[in-house]
Please model this.
Amino acid sequence: MTYHHVTKAEKLCPQNCSCPTDYNIMCQNPLMNAFPISETVMANVTKLTVRNTSIRKIQEGDLSNYPDLRNLYLYSNQIEKIENATFANLPNLLHLLQPTCSRWLFANCAIPNNNDLTIIRRP
Model:
């Protein structure tokens, strides 16, 4: 008999997402229209991928339960707005994959004051 070890992240994983490891959350669902919010702080999470969703807006507190986030990948979504200060409390954020064709989207967002942050623009 084979047993599957349930990670701590799987127990706390946001709805419509998978958490294959304690540091990685992957969300992909065309019916998802709200940003995946964990009900508790997930301090081990360093990578969050949100793709192929119907999300139109990321609000300021949406990332607050991922304090050690280093890699945020947002692509193939329908994001139209990211509220100011959304990234302000993410001092460890190193890579931000910006949505396609939306260079204006981040213009008014408070991106962490981190010289090591790389914003990756997809063609």
